[in-house]
Amino acid sequence: MIEFSLRKQLDTAGGRITLVVDSHIGAGSFTTLFGPSGAGKTSVLRMLAGLMRPERGRIVVDGVTWFDAERRIDLPPQQRAIGFVFQDYALFPNLTVRENIAYAVPRADTSWVDELLALTGLQLLHDRLPATLSGGQKQRVALARAVARKPRLLLLDEPLSALDVQMRTQLQDELASLHRRFGLTTVMVSHDLGEVFKLSDTVLRLEGGRLAASGTPREVFLQKRMSGRLNLHAQVLDVRREDVVHIVTLLIGQEAIDVVASEDEVAGLQAGDTVSVAARAISPYLSRT
Ligand SMILES: Nc1ncnc2c1ncn2[C@@H]1O[C@H](COP(=O)(O)OP(=O)(O)OP(=O)(O)O)[C@@H](O)[C@H]1O
């Protein structure tokens, strides 16, 4: 369990704001920080990592205080048992794939490096330099390096946003499986609602440095009723069967809604498809675009 209370003045394009975020993250959970640009998502991640100092507040991880402004406790990043993956990979350019990963492994444990190479599908690339890798391969190296010390907290700052859709989908699956396999507690910044629904069990939605909402993706993003401002086009986030009906979760603008759909409407429909939505008097129906 990670409990944190963070206060920090941020200088934004629109003036100075105070970031005020109090929350907790369950051990083993996959939490996404979501919100508009400048909301303070990266700042929260950096404060958890010890790369940015809050003016006031506390961070307590499994009963160990990482930061406490009043008691003047501020563990440096290397004592916080974190793995951090950035959008731009941040690999050592002059080290091979194996050396980049081994750098993070205590006492040059070769068999553990081999296992990490295997887990991330990098065995055949082990002696390559980062400059010769694709974006997805580089990010796999960064992920392997970040989990090498079995961190208490894996922090991911938009790790997949530079990748194309196919590579992104593949790495989302690999990320989910690493998270489960190592029982990690993961906090990720993402702008991609499809990714949020796919990966996270908890969302912290930030706006202007404040926690605007928190809960499961459904609790945070689903509307309780149909909006009167429906866009015509929607992205399918999820298709599932509940009892005798099909439920399709749709992203419309910045809001997600559940609609009941017929067998014909969902035939072949999958996450990532786009559909058009029309509202009848009471029940909505879907058609492909
Ligand atoms: N050390 C700092 N001191 C004061 N203000 C800062 C500091 N670092 C960042 N900021 C400002 O805080 C605001 C929030 O930045 P942050 O990177 O946390 O936002 P974000 O929600 O991650 O945005 P984005 O989605 O664009 O990455 C920005 O306006 C930024 O300029």
What does this molecule look like?
The chain is globular and about 60 Å long. The chain is of the alpha+beta class and 289 residues long. It is built from 8 helices and 16 strands. The protein starts with a strand and ends with a strand. α4 (135-147) runs parallel beside α5 (165-181). 35% of the residues are buried. The protein folds into 2 domains: 2-221, Rossmann fold; 233-288, OB fold (Dihydrolipoamide Acetyltransferase, E2P) (Beta Barrel). The chain is 25% helix and 35% strand. The chain binds adenosine-5'-triphosphate. Keywords: ATP-binding, Cell membrane, Membrane, Nucleotide-binding, Transport. It holds the Pfam family ABC_tran. This is GTPase. It comes from Noviherbaspirillum denitrificans.
Features:
289 residues; alpha+beta; Rossmann fold; OB fold (Dihydrolipoamide Acetyltransferase, E2P); 2 domains; six-stranded mixed β-sheet; five-stranded antiparallel β-sheet; 16 strands; 25% helix; globular; binds adenosine-5'-triphosphate
Compile the SSE list and pairings.
Elements (H helix, E strand, L loop, with lengths): L1 E11 L2 E11 L4 E5 L6 H9 L6 E6 L2 E5 L4 E2 L7 E4 L11 H6 L7 H10 L15 H13 L5 E5 L7 H17 L3 E5 L3 H7 L2 E6 L2 E6 L1 H5 L11 E10 L2 E8 L2 E7 L1 H4 L7 E6 L4 E5 L1
Parallel strand pairs: 3-9, 3-10, 7-8, 8-9
Antiparallel strand pairs: 1-2, 1-4, 4-5, 5-6, 10-11, 12-13, 12-15, 13-14, 15-16
This protein binds adenosine-5'-triphosphate.
